[in-house]
């Protein structure tokens, strides 16, 4: 079984909206529905779990019914951090998933879920036990020295930028979250499933990525998302 765990537990203050950014309407459809549709339409996804901000569960169920997201099986509450939200989602699946089932973790505010990217994440996870969406890093990276100058750079060919979707065998990621929260490893700050697993000693394997896989954090990101939708209406605006 392949289960998508979509994380939509944030409030999104940086977007400057009165509602969580995952529920902002874009062309008469909430952002979270664009995200869920990517998993709904993919033939290899068997079920979807939504980790949702409290107070919005009923709204999410109603939108899922309205837009035909019938793979959505569970909605659970998010935590105070992104790591707590993922943990809540993983722990909720403990009586629903087998150890070798694949869990695909994805940010609810990355609404352009590319079918080929999702397929490759699943393929690589089946082969290696995990897979993280990645792309080469094309900018120059310099190490900050004293806030006004630098004498050191990091060769960009040694870097990869990763995002969601990320896939893990359920037994591995479930054990990882138990260990991480018990030992307080990889759960603070900007930590995510991928960084946590590395801190726990796991080797991660790359899967295909897409430049369109934008994360909606600011108003500029929202405008870029709208532009992508207009550019490829047949694919996204259905």
UniProtKB/TrEMBL annotation:
Record carries keyword Aminoacyl-tRNA synthetase: no
CDD domains: CDP-ME_synthetase
Pfam family, one: IspD
Domain of life: Bacteria
GO CC terms in record: cytosol
Single GO molecular function: cytidylyltransferase activity
Entry keywords, A to Z: Nucleotidyltransferase, Transferase
UniProt entry tagged with the keyword Nucleotidyltransferase: yes
InterPro entries: IspD/TarI, Nucleotide-diphossugar_trans
Protein's UniProt name: 2-C-methyl-D-erythritol 4-phosphate cytidylyltransferase
């Amino acid at each position: 079984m392949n289960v998508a765990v979509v994380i939509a537990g944030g409030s999104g203050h940086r977007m400057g909206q009165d509602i969580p950014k995952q529920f902002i309407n874009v062309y008469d459809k909430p952002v979270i529905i664009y995200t869920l549709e990517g998993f709904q339409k993919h033939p290899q996804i068997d079920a979807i779990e939504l980790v949702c901000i409290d107070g919005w569960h009923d709204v999410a169920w109603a939108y899922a019914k309205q837009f035909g997201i019938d793979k959505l099986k569970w909605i659970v509450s998010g935590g105070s951090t992104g790591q707590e939200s993922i943990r809540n989602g993983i722990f909720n699946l403990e009586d629903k998933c087998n150890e070798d089932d694949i869990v695909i973790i994805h940010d609810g505010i990355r609404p352009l879920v590319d079918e080929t990217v999702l397929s490759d994440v699943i393929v690589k996870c089946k082969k290696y036990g995990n897979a993280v969406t990645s792309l080469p890093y094309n900018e120059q990276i310099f190490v900050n020295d004293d806030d006004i100058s630098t004498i050191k750079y990091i060769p960009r060919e040694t870097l990869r930028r990763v995002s969601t979707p990320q896939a893990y065998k359920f037994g591995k990621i479930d054990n990882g979250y138990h260990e991480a929260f018990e030992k307080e490893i990889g759960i603070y700050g900007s930590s995510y499933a991928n960084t946590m697993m590395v801190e726990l000693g796991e080797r991660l394997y790359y899967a295909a990525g897409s430049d369109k896989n934008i994360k909606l954090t600011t108003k500029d990101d929202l405008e870029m998302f709208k532009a992508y939708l207009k550019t490829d209406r047949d694919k996204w605006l259905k």
